[in-house]
Amino acid sequence: MELGLNGRVAVVTGASRGIGTAILRSLRDEGATVVNLDIRSPGSGRVGDLDLTCDVTSPSEVESAVSEIDDTYGRIDVLVNNAGIMVEAPAESIEMAVWRRVFEVNVEGVLNMCQAVAPIMKRQAWGRIVNAASFAAIVPSVGSSAYAASKAAVVQLSRTLASELGPWGITVNSYAPGMVPTEMNGFEGLAPAMRDAKLDQLAIRRWGTPEEVAQAVTFLASECAGYITGSLLDVSGGKLATQSPSTAYAAPYAGGA
Ligand SMILES: NC(=O)c1ccc[n+]([C@@H]2O[C@H](COP(=O)([O-])OP(=O)(O)OC[C@H]3O[C@@H](n4cnc5c(N)ncnc54)[C@H](O)[C@@H]3O)[C@@H](O)[C@H]2O)c1
């Protein structure tokens, strides 16, 4: 399948580490010029063709970064809003400042980026916007109130934008990764019992990799996904696809028997 990303210019937020770095590499492997916008510098040198320090919650920083990209490359074809933060706290007692910061990064950050990039994509009459939601937007976990609510907001913002930008040939989709061990969630360090409880929720009973999420995002960003918009792509290994997926790993089901 020819993805048609050769020569495209792609911006990925939060690509200095984690899933974002894998998305950046995947888009570059398909021939795109890639730009990383992150509040922190990449740990080991450069990850994008251009790496810009930018806090996506700041409309002025976003505006100036997007102008710099437009001045440098003359276009922006793909925007992946990957930057996000996760906080765990009970809804009953979460501090309002913490709640607001989660919404600032996860929701307003996406909106700031879309508002800055949409005029450029409209000018081109072509664009792909792909937004990181989470499986928490579908089924939240205990302690995830701010995070889950913010990611549900991303899904509905994406669906609204899909209709508003459709007339200019711009698609807007979101995706729900899970469960990919990164610095955000610390899954690698879980005690065996907790790890097994999490893996027992999955039809594909193993952790996901950043590259598996990146491949799904790259498809949504491609020419091939031109008739897909307003959708939420579940990239979670079939989390809770059935009530007790782990039973399929017990005899007599295991191994496809
Ligand atoms: N890892 C998972 O299993 C998982 C599951 C569901 C959803 N997600 C989502 O995928 C995305 C990436 O997750 P990850 O696990 O790679 O996280 P991560 O913490 O490893 O990476 C997030 C990146 O976003 C950047 N960032 C944070 N705040 C920013 C800001 N204000 N401005 C610019 N950049 C900022 C960070 O510096 C970091 O480089 C997030 O939106 C996350 O919510 C991840």
TrEMBL record:
Biological-process GO terms, alphabetical: fatty acid elongation
MF-aspect GO terms: oxidoreductase activity, acting on the CH-OH group of donors, NAD or NADP as acceptor
Residue ranges of domain Ketoreductase in the record: 8-178
InterPro entries in the record: KR_dom (IPR057326), NAD(P)-bd_dom_sf (IPR036291), Sc_DH/Rdtase_CS (IPR020904), SDR_fam (IPR002347)
Highest taxon listed in the record's lineage: Bacteria
Gene3D superfamilies with a match to the protein in the record: NAD(P)-binding Rossmann-like Domain (3.40.50.720)
Keywords assigned: Oxidoreductase
Similarity remark: Belongs to the short-chain dehydrogenases/reductases (SDR) family.
PANTHER family from the UniProt entry: 3-OXOACYL-[ACYL-CARRIER-PROTEIN] REDUCTASE, CHLOROPLASTIC, SHORT-CHAIN DEHYDROGENASES/REDUCTASES FAMILY MEMBER
Protein known as: SDR family oxidoreductase
